[in-house]
Batch of 4 targets.
Target 1
Amino acid sequence: MDGLRTEQHELLRRHREAALDLVLIVASAYTGSTPLRDLPAGRALLREPAERLVPVAVSAAAAAVERRRFQQDAADSDRSYRFDSADSFPIEVLHALGRRRLPFAAEDVELLLDLGSTTMRADRVLGRSFEAMAFGASAARRLLEQEPGAPPVLAALGRAGAALDGLGLADSGGALRAGIRTLVAEHAPGGLLDLSVLDERDGWAEAAASVLRRHAEWDDAQQLVALLSRAHGARPSAAWRRRSAELAASYERYGELVRGLLDPLLRIELVPSGVPWPPVWLVAPGNEPFVRGATWAAVDVRERWVVGLLGRVALRGAASSPHPKVTTALCHAAASGGVEALAELGGPAARAELRTLLAEVRRRDLAKRIAAALGEPPEAIEARDQRLRRDKRRLVQLSADPEPRARQRAASAYVRRDLAPMLRAAGFDDSAGRTFWRALDDRVEVLHCRARTSGLTLELGIWFRVVPRAYPVPEHEGRPRPGEGHCDLRGRVEVRSDGLEAAGRQSALWFARWRPLDAVLRLLRDDAHTDDVFGWGAPGSPRHRVLTGYLARAVGNRELARGQLALAAAYYRGELEGHDAERGPSPEWAAWVELLEADAARP
């Protein structure tokens, strides 16, 4: 627990002492074969008073992080670290307590957040550190509702955000990072305008920050920042809409502020994104909720300029990227938000603007929404959609670069001439195009030659026969032909300057390495980080449990098999029961879940 302060170590010690008796009883009954909520001891634990569950939650978060660190240290030193059912126990406890409103103190929440942030490393993403941090962020949200502006919690949120930023993940840490930013923005100290929620990687953020600072004298300016940053989904919730109306009514310059946020979208220049896709941004991903929120907020501004501005924002947001190979919109959030706001405004002017947009927008999803808002009949909407799809296909064909097609033809000729004879001699006696299959007793091995701009790559895969599937894989003349997405283990070998023969030898060694089922099971249980194999799912995920369970059964480890399959079956049964009641689950899916349950109960 490097990075915790002395008083935090002492707090953790006290929590562990208080939780010891409760945790020992449940842990001794937990084998991994039965979900925690289904164990008598687990149900007894969850019935404990909320104040007694606080130390249990903190202890579980610490245990989850510690176990992940032990595993990572073993991987760094090339040592084997063998996990058992006890390793999933802390995460099960956190999941079971995740929705409980436990009476954490501010120092408890600070500890939960720091447990995650102090154990993250830039060279490795520690999954269970994310679990502890996500649990801590949820606890922070609830505590700040009762104690707005609690300094230890806000400081810990700041450290957690910095730890996520230090990992260099795409979009600054994804949903967890965005949630932490929003939470900090909601609870900035009175009189302080916290604009850290703005993503500074585009040309809009600076203009938006300048507008917000001009209105900083408004007491609720920070509340507007928090509200706009929470604009997710296709349309605002009733609670979001009520809060926007309240803010609009409380500030006479609300319209000026909203217009100041939207106007720059019409004049800012595109900026390089700094990521492979897309190559340029109108607004960076972190600012898309904010922009969408500004369009929604315009509904509460009853001024003549609103309709026209929303239409222009929607049109620019829906425009295609200037890059010839990019078909995504410049800013789908702005386009979607503008369309939704116009539909919500209604009235002759808004409907006229929507009709203008319908004639100019070439994006199928937006055209459908506009037509539905205007009340067009379904057959007219479908006819327009088909026309737009044909136009898009024609445009793509006309603008297509001939070089990729030439590269694919050269790759196919190379495979027929040099690769195919080598693979058939090695037992890959089934093929289609540049994909080859080798059938063995317990698996099907797959090799596909992919042509990339950087050269040829051999995509490798293993599909295990012992794992039942919810849906069948493609077949040809009774022989399974699993595709890349069906494979349980995957790998990749680059064809380098030393030629195809060297790549072929490397591929043969890769398949041989995973021929023993014991080796595959050890890989799954240890969650080892290797560069040459991937694709089996995150540890503890239902997919990972299904694969581990059936391979454990195949090697004779019945206890592990029952435990993993029971947990997977419980998850999928919940998914099955939560399925759309009108359509119902497919018969294949229902039968597969029943098979999981039956296999989990087998001795």
Target 2
Amino acid sequence: MSIDAIQGAQMDFNIFTVNTQNPDGSQVQSPSASVSKLDLKAPGKAQREYEKGFQFLMKKDLQAAVAHLGIAIQIYPSFVAAHNALGSAYLDLQQNEQARDEFDKAVTLDDHLPNSYLNLGCAQLALKEYPAAEESLRKASSIAPLDMQLQLALTYGEFESHDYPAVIETAHHVHEHKHKGAALVHYFAGGAWAAQNNLVEAQQEMDTLLKEDPKSGSVEQIHQILDQLKTEQARQAEAKLHPAETLTLSLNTTNTPPPEQKLRQAAQVLQDIKERTQIAEAEAEPEAKCADCGAKVGPEPGIAEHGVAQPAAAADSGSALKRAGLDSPGSTFRASVDEVSIFFAATDHGKSATNLTASDIVVRDDNRPPHAILGFRNESQLPLRLGLIIDTSNSVKDRISFEEAAATKFLETVVTGKDDLAFVVGVNNSVLLVQDFSGDQARISHEINQLAPGGGTALWDAVEFGADKLRDRAEGKPVARVLIVISDGEDNASSATLKQAIASAQRGEVAIYTVSTRDYDQEDPSAELGDHALRALSELTGGTAFIPGSVRGLKGSLAELQQVIRGRYLVSYKPAAFQRDGRYREIDITAQKDGHKLKVYARKGYYASAAQPASGDN
């Protein structure tokens, strides 16, 4: 299967390079969205030469761009952005080997930036080094996993490398997420299916492409492809033979009209209105009934394993907590026993309360005491799974070094168990997975200190990603799932809303703890609004918000947070008068020790799933 139109346009490589002017391109392409810390150390003269070269590059005066960018690199050889820009100029000049060398230098200098790998992959594609290109594009997409344009570039690399199963897997991954502007993945998936002689699936991918992009300038050609597929299917059915000749499909995108221009960032007042609206939506009283609980058994906060409702996997009469051993939270949802498992934390004047027993707490579910307490445990015994989200946008530019030092110290005091694991996400315009799950403190600290500020803030996208990552990790035994967000609470680039981010955490029973980096010494009318958003994010997921009021108080807040995390408990109980009617049930947990009340952090409630148990349940 040929993709001559895509090749004929040479993938329009500037679509995928850091210096693109395409308004619907990848978020990591913005020069301010993916910054190397090395670039912040560039001498003023090198920066001025870089800026001149960048402007010439934008004007397509490529020779002048090469000259100025070359001078910038001579002055400061570790200038990652200059190597990327110079490589882009070479790519436009079709000097592909020089372009590859510059991008390779950028990757060697700093291997944390998705745009450098993306650029390197594009140069390797131009040189027809397809396996290497696929690997580079895969690395870029692993660092920025929510960027659908990177996934689109990856499918192209996989297709050219004839890695057809990978093309199909990537296309399915993209299809499961919002992917405006990336519908073309279905074209590559269709080609991958056709290359494996599965014309039925190829036709379905083309149908999906038409459905997702009905106004494409290539609609007529896609219909022609579908006609070819249908004709070939009929021929094969009649002859009952494999095709004797290669089926050639082509899609000409050269006449496709340019995509709609992205809206410019709204004025701050409009951004504040948007954030107020999202906070109000998140904090609104829960609906009386869950609108999505009646169709099938699915994840519902508050019931069964980590508060997730599941169909019965084993219909026995004993408590699932006891069955799993050590009063494990791995309970199952059964027709005979409806169990609620809820995590909470308790502190005593800022210190973790680590010696509570079941007799020290009072639980009320739907304003009634439980029918029975089935299990109680101090969660400090559990291995920790911790996600750390660090805001690296322009709004925290002056505080990023202090944030990194405080975050590093915090992880050193929290990720201490031999089975503890943590991952780190940096967030600006894009969500960057700078370190996947690891227990190596030195490695995690190194990756944190490579973060550099720049760009906007897709904070709610990062929270949704982090919560899903914690929830989806397969575990062989019970673990504690915690998400830490260090930010000023300002979001101006997310596709997800605050409410959606909270819902993702609630589904996975992930407690979110937020630490504000706002400095109230500086007058900022949006400070209170950002802190309000952080409070809502924490309180509605069973965590808490720490608002130190200045960056100098960040270390103290993180030290207090460490106490809270290690003072978490799991209580499991059978609610009284429980019915699976989809109704929202409030939870209230109070705790006392030695005659005085403790501060408790816990979820506010859950929906009682209206789904029927799986067949065969007792």
Target 3
Amino acid sequence: MTWRGRHIYLIGLPGAGKSSIGRGIAALLQKSGYEFVDLDEEIVRSSGKTIADIFTSEGEERFREIETNQLLQFSQKHFDQQPLVIATGGGTPLRAINRSIMRGSGIIVWVDVTVRQAAKNVMASLLGGETRPLLRSSNVEELTEKLRKLLEERLHFYEQATMHFVTRSPHGDERTPPELAQQLLNALEQMSRSIRLRPRFETFIAHSGMGNYPVSIGSGIAASELGATIRDMNVQRAVAITDENISKIYAQKFFQRITADYKGALQISQIVLAPGESSKDHDTLFDILDSFINLDLSRKTDVVITLGGGVVSDIGGLAASLYKRGLPLIHVPTTLIGQCDAAIGGKTAMDYSGHKNYIGSFYAPKAVLIDPLFLKSLPKRELNAGLAEIVKYALIGSPVLWTKISKSLRRLLRGYDIGIEIIIRDAVQEKLRYIKDDEFEQKKGVRELLNFGHTFAHAFETTTNYDQLLHGEAVALGMRAASWLSMELGLLDEDEWRQIEIVLGRLPIPVTPEFSADAIITAMRKDKKHQAENHRLVLLEGIGKAIIQEKVDEKAIRKAIDFVLSVI
């Protein structure tokens, strides 16, 4: 697998010559379509401020946010379109999100220069009028010491680059930037023949008040990116929470590969749950917590990994959030519902006393790694059920996604299809938008829109004791009820309802669940969002436009349930 066509990210100390070498190699690769970008220069251009001004007026943390946004913009804008050579700032690799963005879309090259040479180059730039807020110095000796400390702090991240490019000559002679660019090009060609590059993937940012985290999407990335993420965190032990089905299929080989690739000692323990909704209970939660206690897990040296569907990420995330007030957490969802919905957004939960998701927390993971290849081993029924959550995103906020689903649904229902990655990507971006706007459901009617169809669905699941319908199947029926009710109340045009019903009606429901309208109404009254006699529902005013409807008449709800009962 060649490096050509991928971005080339140059990282290293200030004064390493990243910009001059980057310009040189971009010129050499001009015929291959490469262009050069200096990340610091782009930050100055887009913000209208010098980096020193940003540090002074807004602080370093704000500068790092701008830096990440610029990096993400260039990595995505040109992904699979136009490759770039990007000279990053010296501190760019400090953020986990930045490292994920660069790993997924390109080749990372550590431009390694001696501290003394870097100090000489930085001093020359300072004397030339350049401002470097972290490197204000009166003499070369002071500057050298500052750079030495920076190298100690950042070495762990520099060493994880795809390529280590040493600029100093074995004979001590200095080489010009064009000579170094040619040498780097030769090294890249040699690397292509000697090592297997990781699959490419895209990274998006989940904005969280508990700390932003990367959501990475790409086929074949799970093991390599999980290993890289764990190595980034510099942990000693990992505890993987999975279920019996996943454990039998590939968990052992999956974790053996990560351990083999890990540089340094890494212990991975497994906690294996029974599959299905029955594992989202207090007994399972305390069993997991007992395992954490027996392993004497530490917040500083250990990490929890959930490998499975929504049940695993919900209960595993809840346990991680509670133990010692929070263990580092990584989600690796293996089901379609997990990949497009359950693992993203920081919600954890367990069922209690017949109530769905009644006890839970908001807890942000360190990363979410989405690998569509897991879906190849997913039973067709679960794959089809997962499509319901993707349809939900289209109906509540994305007519564009609705068009894609409508055109490709027949193909997707046949089983795993490589086109599913694009659909997952779009659904993930939709969910991230709601999380950014209302992570903790504090803004009335923002993130709550994600519950479209779910009030009905949870009642369907509860009434059938969670053993007849898969969650996605219940959601599909719930959306049919909510769409019909939207039309009945005069909110949704009948023609649009017919379009929705045609698509939702094609999602297979292979069982005939046994429930009555009375039982569903009773369960809906117990919904955690139900207040007094107020049925509060998410309904539709059109495809791509959802609203919150207060005080929905129970007679109309009963008619919607009767409609669903008549079509299944």
Target 4
Amino acid sequence: MGLLALLIAMEMGTLAFTMNILSAARAYVGGEGLWSKAQKDAVFEMQNYVATRNPKFYRAYLDQLKVPLGDRQARLEMSKVDMNPKVVTEGFLNGKIHAHDIPSMINLMRRFHDVKYLATVIGVWNQADDMLDQLIKVGDQIHTQIAVKGKASNSYEIRQLMNQLDRINSGLTGLEDQFSYKFGEASRWLEDILLIILLVTVLIVESTGLFLTVRFTRGLTRALSEVNTAAVEVSQGKFTTTVPVRSRDELGQLAEALNKMTESLRTSKGEQAHAEEASQIKNLFLANMSHEIRTPLSAILGFVELLKDPHVSEAERLQFLEIVERTGNSLATVLNDILDISKVEAGKLEVNRVTCQLPKLLADLQLLLQLRCESKGIYLQFKPVGYVPEWIYTDPMRLRQILLNMIGNAIKFTYRGGVAVSYSATQDSLEFSIVDTGIGIPAESMNKLFVPFSQGDLSIRKVHGGTGLGLSLSRRLAQLLGGDIVLDSSKVNVGSSFRVKVALDQAKASTSNLSEISSRASAVTGDMKLDKKRILLVDDSTDIQLLIRLFLSKSGANVDIASNGLEGVNRALEEKFDVVIMDMQMPVMDGYTATEKLRQKGYLSPIIGLTAHAMREDLAKCMQVGCNDVLTKPVNRGQLIDFVQKYC
């Protein structure tokens, strides 16, 4: 095992070095994008300065130039023999490079700067810096005309300078494209070299690992055989049976647990009924766990052996890896279902009822499940029966989980025809009928449908997979939502029909819906509800920045942008804003830390949190650090404007 650990460490070291270098290449290309954006934004701010003569645009122009100037500082320092890492780091940080990427970027440039590809890239970078000097020089001349000469400035000369600025801007854009292209060539060269090294290391590790795995498998098979044998004997009433504890790992702990169970049953065999029930539950649990361990283990060992074959094609290798990935996802599903059903049993699973759009929920679900049906050549239909409200009041996440389990189950057991889902509503409930043309359920198996870890018989698990938790969990969730799940009918080789019912509160849905419709209508009209209000948006995503700026600007607001929490804190303390909208997950400084720092410094203006995490504990965390309210992504325009107006 020590040898294998050493070989794996070598492989991981090679992989880490590979990832480090490729990550650095990605960071350089990303940095070029930031460089390019900052340069174009600087030109844009200069255009605003010329048009308005407002000094704030000139200050914004200078701020944008900090990005390419920071990158230049880093490049010049890295070219020195006695490089100062602090100077390089300071430069890259000014260039908005993430701090975690900087060491790998320095490593890449220092190790490979003499390689032909990177030497070409550095040359292009140098040309871009020279052209940047020209841009700065022209910008200074324009500023002199406007700020120094004032009314005596020469409009014709300013236009000529602006034309010169545009030409420099176009030239820089060409160099930026050339930088990205050349860096792509360098990255591919590095990738090929590192991939060869990694493949050699992987072959050595897998050859050794295969040998050790065979030995490990024999020991594992023996331990599982002992556990299964003991479980069978205990189920037959032989409470003197014990399992040898050969290790302190999970199997050893399982053996100890079985021995403790056996001892407990032996001391209480006067309660015969209780002992039999406990034995059955234990036997069922052990059989399921044994199956869930053996199946992925067999797949992994088999496909590792196949992957060792040097003649395996790339397509086959990807197919084998997909099988391993599917096996892992299956185990993850089992764990999630066990956790959920355990929470239900313990009474700790909470439901979060809110107003949601039923058509949108069902459309998303149909789109997801349609792919499974198409791969099997069967149909999937969703059909409303009678009047069905657009807005409902329930827990949308749990309702989606129930329907995904039930409809997914129907698809799994259907090989011809298809699955039809019809739904209807009353004032108090929402009901779904799920009818399939699948294999059906034998009469003798119907009483075990909603029992955890139960399936019709062992052949079902072998052919179709699964652990028998889906129906049981779905029924418990439906009951938590004030409803139930029942089997209406089933016939072998004809199909089955299930009915899912959950409670509704249409009065609450209607009330919430009116508010939602009002918000949307207000947003559509585009009235100037936020006329001249000044908003600071702190978000690292340029797409979100553009979207929210458009939403708020169309309602009359003036929107300033900060790209990370640190920049947002500085802007909020330096300038006056009516409302701050703070994204929670950002580089440099996240929104939680930024909000907390603002409140610690006595900042009193409203802060609205913005997050893609919609769990109750995530929203509570936003409020704890000092947010006045929280908006969740995706952002609703009407709700956004109403929130901002409320806190203005």
